């Protein structure tokens, strides 16, 4: 097994999942402000320290995705974040995209940027202790979207990113997110997700990306959050797995879902319901951001007295998701 394949398997096996703590400075600052915490570099660091020092984190978390700012920061004990994670048996990842920017010729659609200089940045991130990377593309559903232009541009960028990461020794997490924003139906989400994943795997093949050395991070197939018809948990699980079976080759070791704005409990229920749908050719796990850390951030609110309670809130979600990966198998 190559190192890339080993890292990919480690990330998705043993019931564990990935914690996405890679909010860009802008997103992290808004999240801190929403709970009354001043959005300073130091407060972003302290909040990330709370996450990675959560007791028993490694029982249910295999990897933590860091932001560029965080991978260069230190914990209060002087360790870097990758050092602290390595010390507890958790892999360090790094978000390498530089954000979704307006796509020329496609009003209201975005293409994720960050390919310029990526080869050199990958080398640096490996030196800083990263073993895997993440790049997120966003796709919007409406009457006129997504355009083929947006889907193909984003798929192309994801594949070039994945190729550069593998060349430099990082396992790429390939994240094409079909957003929950809007009032679209479950069927529309399925249709768009299917088309996006087909295009992504076509581009990955063109770039000769080794599928055994990558992780796919897709959205679950759900109705738009403003839709009046919300499917039940079993239906979401069935339609999501059906869509993945149609599009994701079995050589991909694992699929780690994003939560995309679902409540923590609902995201966990969906993950659990999917485990029953044998045969699954890949591991199905989580790479949640908000659905893992949301309750912890709400509990902490910058109050040092709430540090342990916040860590318990994170632990509770992480343990629930790890349990969801097996419990349903009954
Ligand atoms: C943690 O947030 C990630 C970075 O977002 P920005 O670049 O917009 O700041 C984000 O990519 C995240 O990893 C995924 O959306 C998954 O998180 P959720 O909250 O959807 O599970």
CATH architecture: Alpha-Beta Barrel
CATH superfamily: Aldolase class I
Please tell me how large the radius of gyration is: 19 Å
The CATH class turns out to be Alpha Beta
- Quote the beta fraction: 5-15%
Shape: globular
Q: Would you tell me the overall average pLDDT? A: 97
* Poorly predicted runs: none
* Strand and helix order: HEHHHEHHEEEHEHEHEHEHEHH
User: How do the strands line up in the largest sheet?
Assistant: 1-2-3-6-7-8-9-10
Bound small molecules, by name, code or SMILES, are: 2-O-methyl-1,6-di-O-phosphono-D-mannitol
**Number of alpha- plus pi-helical segments:** 13
Q: Number of DSSP strands?
A: 10
Question: Briefly, what is this?
Answer:
The protein is of the alpha/beta class and about 325 residues long. The chain has helices at about 5-10, 25-35, 40-50, 55-60, 70, 80-85, 120-125, 150-170, 185-205, 235-245, 265-275, 290-300, 305-325, and strands at about 15-20, 60-65, 90-95, 100, 110, 130-140, 170-180, 215, 255, 285-290. The two termini are about 30 Å apart.
Can you describe this structure?
With 330 residues, this protein is α/β, with parallel strands linked by helices. The protein has 13 helices and ten strands. The chain has helices at residues 3-12, 25-34, 41-52, 57-60, 68-71, 81-87, 118-127, 148-168, 186-206, 233-247, 264-274, 290-300, 307-327; strands at 17-20, 61-66, 91-95, 100-102, 110-112, 132-139, 171-178, 215-216, 254-257, 283-288. The protein starts with a helix and ends with a helix. The site of 2-O-methyl-1,6-di-O-phosphono-D-mannitol has 15 residues, from helix 12.
């Amino acid at each position: 097994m190559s190192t890339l394949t080993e890292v990919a398997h480690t990330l998705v096996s043993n019931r564990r999942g990935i914690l996405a703590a890679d909010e860009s400075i802008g997103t992290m600052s808004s999240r801190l402000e929403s709970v009354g915490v001043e959005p300073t570099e130091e407060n972003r660091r302290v909040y990330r320290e709370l996450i990675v020092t959560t007791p028993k984190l490694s029982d249910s978390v295999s990897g933590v995705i860091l932001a560029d700012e965080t991978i260069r920061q230190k914990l209060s004990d002087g360790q870097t974040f990758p050092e602290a994670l390595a010390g507890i048996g958790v892999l360090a990842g790094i978000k390498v995209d530089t954000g979704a920017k307006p796509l020329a010729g496609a009003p209201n659609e975005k293409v994720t940027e960050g390919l310029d200089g990526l080869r050199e940045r990958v080398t640096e991130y490996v030196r800083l202790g990263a073993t895997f990377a993440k790049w997120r593309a966003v796709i919007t559903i409406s009457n006129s979207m997504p355009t083929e232009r947006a889907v193909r541009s984003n798929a192309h960028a994801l594949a070039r990113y994945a190729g550069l990461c593998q060349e430099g020794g990082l396992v790429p997490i390939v994240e094409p997110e079909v957003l929950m924003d809007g009032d679209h139906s479950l069927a529309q989400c399925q249709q768009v997700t299917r088309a996006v994943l087909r295009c992504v795997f076509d581009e990955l093949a063109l770039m000769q990306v080794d599928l055994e050395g990558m992780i796919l991070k897709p959205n679950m197939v759900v109705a738009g959050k403003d839709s009046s018809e919300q499917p039940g948990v079993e239906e979401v699980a069935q339609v999501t797995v059906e869509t993945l079976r149609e599009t994701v080759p079995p050589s991909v070791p694992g699929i780690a879902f994003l939560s995309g704005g679902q409540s923590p409990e609902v995201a966990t229920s969906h993950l659990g319901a999917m485990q029953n749908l044998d045969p699954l050719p890949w591991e199905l796990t989580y790479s949640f951001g908000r659905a893992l850390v949301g309750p912890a951030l709400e509990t902490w609110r910058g109050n040092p007295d709430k540090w342990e309670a916040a860590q318990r809130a994170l632990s509770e979600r992480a343990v629930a998701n790890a349990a969801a990966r097996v419990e349903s198998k009954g």
